[in-house]
Specification:
It is built from 8 helices and 13 strands. It has about 300 residues and is an alpha/beta fold. It has one domain: Vaccinia Virus protein VP39 (Rossmann fold, 3-Layer(aba) Sandwich), CATH 3.40.50. The strands form 3 sheets. Strands 8-7-6-9-10-13-12 form a 7-stranded mixed sheet, sandwiched between helices. The protein has a 4-stranded antiparallel sheet with strand order 2-3-4-11, with no helix packed on it.
Length: about 300
């Protein structure tokens, strides 16, 4: 079963139009419609699987964020880059707050929280996936919960992170509102999302892996992120690029666009396109993926 939205899930505008058809290359091979909001510019899957029925779309071996064991070369590369990125993420939050409490929404298998905990952050993670949550709990017992509802109402945090998570959340407005409630005054929210206006998105079109339908429910523009700022009492203080994402997304996109190509060819083309995408981006906000850093007013 699927649900059909008649209003934009972010700004609630009824000014929505069909935008494009995109295939789920990873699991079902089905086509899904992306709609575009004429007011806030959000792209969103519509109709979309219901929250309680989307689980099977995540059940494939290449969904590396839910697996901490290396099973092939691409996953080995992914994990090496992830380990480097984790250190950079911890450096980033230290640049905002000299320690304190951290909530990672969509913490996956828990490596980022584990590293932050080693550096004396008081950490808490939210992970809906039972498989990934089990692996995270093995690293951080009693510190990972399945949903926001499991957090004590009085619990608040200096920093909340959502790294490639916001695009997966069905109850978008409700979740953002509740996250802000759990943020301390002048605390920070870091939101990393793919950019459908990036150079690699333009290059690959409907085969761009960043669309990742139906797992990715939304695709945010700069205007969409500005709406989040205004609607939820936040101030956008900085935007930072995620420079490795263009290479990984290009690698997946090469496989979708040219499924009969060899691995070496895919890697070669992905490296060229990833480099080109980063070079043409120029400024933060234009990269394949970007981290939007908000401060609570």
């Amino acid at each position: 079963m699927s649900e059909h939205l008649i209003k934009c899930p972010l700004c609630k505008s009824g000014n929505i139009l069909n935008h494009s058809l995109v295939q789920d290359y990873a699991v079902s091979q089905k086509e899904f419609t992306l709609c575009r909001c004429g007011d806030c510019e959000l792209l969103f899957t519509n109709p979309r699987p219901k929250e309680e029925e989307i689980g099977p779309y995540y059940d494939f071996k290449e969904y590396y964020s839910h697996e901490d064991k290396v099973q092939n070369f691409t996953q080995w590369v992914y994990q090496k880059i992830r380990n480097y990125s984790i250190r950079k993420k911890v450096d980033l939050i230290f640049g905002l707050s000299k320690g304190g409490s951290l909530l990672d929404y969509g913490c996956g298998t828990g490596e980022f929280l584990q590293e932050a905990s080693r550096q004396q952050w008081a950490v808490r993670g939210i992970e809906p996936s039972e498989k990934a949550r089990g692996q995270a709990l093995g690293k951080l017992p009693n510190q990972i919960v399945p949903s926001l509802k499991e957090l004590p109402e009085e619990e608040s945090y200096d920093v909340v992170t959502l790294f490639h998570v916001l695009e997966h959340i069905h109850s978008l407005r409700k979740t953002l509102k509740n996250i802000v409630k759990h943020l301390k005054s002048e605390g920070y929210i870091l939101v990393a999302v793919p950019n459908p206006h990036s150079e690699d998105a333009k290059k690959y079109g409907s085969t761009w892996a960043g669309y990742d339908v139906p797992r990715h429910l939304y695709h945010f523009s700069k205007k969409s992120m500005s709406f989040i700022q205004d609607e939820f009492g936040l101030e956008l203080v900085q935007v930072k690029p995620m420079i490795f994402d263009s290479y990984y997304v290009s690698l997946l996109s090469e496989g979708y666009k040219n499924p009969n190509s060899g691995l070496i060819s895919r890697y070669f083309n992905a490296i060229l396109q990833g480099y080109s995408s980063n070079k043409k981006a120029g400024v933060p906000g234009n990269y394949s993926s970007n981290i939007f850093i908000f401060k609570k007013k």
